[in-house]
């Protein structure tokens, strides 16, 4: 055989072996749980003069979670629509964002949390505090809101003949 033919067959063998390695490794991977969508967030009251999130009112709000594989973006219902980028693995997520409150503008805020069934529990912690302020930490929880697209359509009722 010619040297070029042997080189060509060797390259084909190398290519086939590489595809087999990728296929075997790919079969062991699993996608993370889907937590994207709207979550009903319980908003606590705060007397902090420099809060992590500037919440308009206490009660409930909607937390928007966007997901691409293991990467998350959480958008909070505060007055600035503060968003955090996070990494999600095995039901645990962690990430960071910047404070948009005027007393601590552009200060890093860290996010750590856990997903259990239809509930998210997480803590926001500001890295640096304004002078003389106590360490800021905010514990929040959210419950998954029912997705309108998951509900079966209701049959339309036609008027009954008399």
Give your account of this protein's structure:
This protein has 162 residues and is mainly β. The chain folds into 2 domains: 1-30; 37-146, Lipocalin. It is 15% helix and 38% strand. The chain is built from 1 helix and 8 strands, in the order H-E-E-E-E-E-E-E-E. The protein has an 8-stranded antiparallel β-barrel. The protein is elongated and about 85 Å long.
CATH architecture of the largest domain: Beta Barrel
Query: Which residues form runs of ≥5 with pLDDT under 50?
Result: none
CATH class of the largest domain: Mainly Beta
Distance between the termini: 90 Å
Q: What share of the residues lie within helices?
A: 10-25%
Mean pLDDT: 84
Helix and strand content put the structural class at mainly beta
Calculate Rg over CA atoms: 25 Å
Count of all domains: 2
* Biggest beta sheet summary: 8 strands, antiparallel, barrel
- Record field, number of beta strands: 8
């Amino acid at each position: 055989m010619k040297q070029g033919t042997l080189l060509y067959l060797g390259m084909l063998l190398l290519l086939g072996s590489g595809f087999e390695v990728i296929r075997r490794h790919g079969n062991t991977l699993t996608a993370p749980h889907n937590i994207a969508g709207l979550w009903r967030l319980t908003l606590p009251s705060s007397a902090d003069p420099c809060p992590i999130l500037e919440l308009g009112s206490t009660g409930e709000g909607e937390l928007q979670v966007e997901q691409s594989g293991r990467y998350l973006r959480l958008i909070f219902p505060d007055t600035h629509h503060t968003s955090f980028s996070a990494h999600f693995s095995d039901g645990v997520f962690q990430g960071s964002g910047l404070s948009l409150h005027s007393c601590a503008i552009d200060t890093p805020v860290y996010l750590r949390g856990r997903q259990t069934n239809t509930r998210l529990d997480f803590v926001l912690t500001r890295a640096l505090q304004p002078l003389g302020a106590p360490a800021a930490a905010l514990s929040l929880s959210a419950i998954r809101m029912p997705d309108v697209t998951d509900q079966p359509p209701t049959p339309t009722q036609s008027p009954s003949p008399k």
